[in-house]
Amino acid sequence: MINSKKMHLKTLAVVNFKNIKEALIDFSPRLNTFIGNNGAGKTNLLDALYSLSFSKSFFSTSDQLNVTYDENWFMIQGKYLRESAEETVVYGFQSGQKKLLKRNGKAYKKMSDHIGLFPLVMVSPSDASLILGGSEERRKFMDGVISQYNSAYLEDLLRYNRVLLQRNNLLKKAAESGRLDNDMLDVYDGELTYCGFRIHQQRKEFVKNLKPVFQFFYSQISGGNEQVGLVYQSELNRQTFEKLLKESLACDRAARFTTTGTHKDDLRLTLAGYPLKKAGSQGQQKTYLVSLKLAQFEFIREISGVKPILLLDDIFDKLDKNRVEEIVKMVAGDRFGQIFITDTNRDHLDSILHSVTPDYRIFHVSNGKIEAIR
């Protein structure tokens, strides 16, 4: 294990964010739990933490939707301690204006420069789309992790998608006119081949490194009695992209779009060799997702040298007592840093928390109001 830098969020100030009218909270550097009924505002609080790291909500693409009803602005401020230095991040929005993101009082020229400075991993019920959704959801998962700390990968991905759109437009025009511009096709194919090869190599390496860590976490949580798999599926695993494009040209012309390439990649998620979507119970699927996100945490920690903040939103639903206990014990250990957990029931958490670490705080959340109760 590498020697990771220490980082934690000391305090959080929130004004007019979703149903949180106003809050000022001091956190434990290790473990923080938020207890309350569904709809109380627990998830909104975690989303405020997420927004400080990514300059956007985990759930909404529009900042306007995150403003408290009857208001036209919100503000989130976090004070972090990284090693021995204190850093302040402010994220704000006002209707009709550009959103604001400042670090230590200085606004960013490009908000993308902020990504990765305060690494964070969120585990949410919405992650079920990785299992139940289409291949696009699983590509987003791979791309989201890799591009956080590999700007060249993100550039390749953006470039690939631009050229893919241009190639598809060329195929549509060819179908309408009956004539294909082969010179332009060669240009687009060359670009796709170059970027696609680089994307494929990075994804292949990512899954190779992620898989053993993911399987370790799943084994720990489940008691080691279940076998899970993670397989990167890509047409480029069996054939060069250049040849694939040539072989599929007739099919592409008939379909009027590019039918082969890294934009068709997928992750095969398995339990005992069978598709997890069909073979896994709700508890097994939940265990799979938590293990996958904990492996994502490990991957980011290795690359950034900083232990990401870990947000666990309502992850204990559908899990038996043993699995809940294993997860809490695991994340409270030295491998992880600062943890935030939401749940509706305090009773089954209290005894576990007390047994694994004395350094934890419990907050009660009701109607957007947060009160420390331990």
Offer a few descriptive terms.
alpha/beta; 11 helices; single chain; six-stranded antiparallel sheet; 43% helix; 24% strand; 15 strands; six-stranded mixed sheet; 374 residues
How does this model look, in words?
The protein is α/β, with parallel strands linked by helices. The chain contains eleven helices and 15 strands. The strands form three sheets. It has a six-stranded antiparallel beta sheet with strand order 2-1-4-5-6-7, covered by helices on one side. The chain has a six-stranded mixed beta sheet with strand order 8-12-13-3-14-15, sandwiched between helices. The radius of gyration is 23 Å and the shape is globular. The model has no long low-confidence stretch (mean pLDDT 91).
